[in-house]
User: What shape does this take?
Amino acid sequence: MELQAILFAFLVSVLSTQALKQGECEVCIKVLDRFRNNLSENVLKDHKKIENKFRDFCKNVKNKENRFCYYLGGLEESATGILGEMSKPMSWSLPSDKICEKLKKKDSQICDLRYDVQIDLKTVDLKKLKVRDLKKILNDWGEDCEGCIEKGEYLKRIEELKPKHTEL
Assistant: This one.
């Protein structure tokens, strides 16, 4: 009886370590949910069609999501490809968090991806941000600051573009 209790406790501890923790794999889960929501029922039943659609989906993503696509093999320049590890479970209607759990076992980098904290331009004092953060704001907007070297130049460029990129 005591041996059964020990085995049960061991099994519970093993299973609990494999489950995703809160906030883990956030990029994976969000990307797969968004991708799945754009697929028809016909496509969701065929893992090869899912893979082809995922490659198309990956052509239009940036930053962390682009890196996620790279890890799965959804980009032409991807070094490896584990798309089957995503597409087959998705065709079986497995939830995104469970798919990400399986992907984590194949490549732990997938769950290391985290979204950057968004800067609220309405409340933040831009002068207190680092140049790196100012560059990130411009990059997120798809803008550049040619010839900018000093922090003041980046601040000026952001102030010029702010009305174009922020909702009032």
About this structure: Residues 11-17 have pLDDT under 50 and may be disordered.
